[in-house]
Design brief:
1 helix, single chain, two-stranded antiparallel ribbon, mainly beta
Length: 90
Amino acid sequence: MLPECWKRYTVKLPGDYTISAAIINHPSNPETRWHCALGALVINPNITTDRELPLKANEPLTLRYRVIAQDGAFDANRMNELVCDHVTTR
């Protein structure tokens, strides 16, 4: 698992049909590493860190992600646009 800003997954299904999914992390989130279980067709962001992650009592931990799903494979330029838009959103 590597720290990354986003992770995408494209799957070819029977009948020559392709679908894609992506999750884009937000820089305000704690350090995130990705778990991709290829056989299970899932993408999971995981909060993992080698340092303490202090949480305040009675205050929520807010995590921000953008989830994208589409027919077909992702276009690299469009994916970069979506990533830039999300990581610059406050």
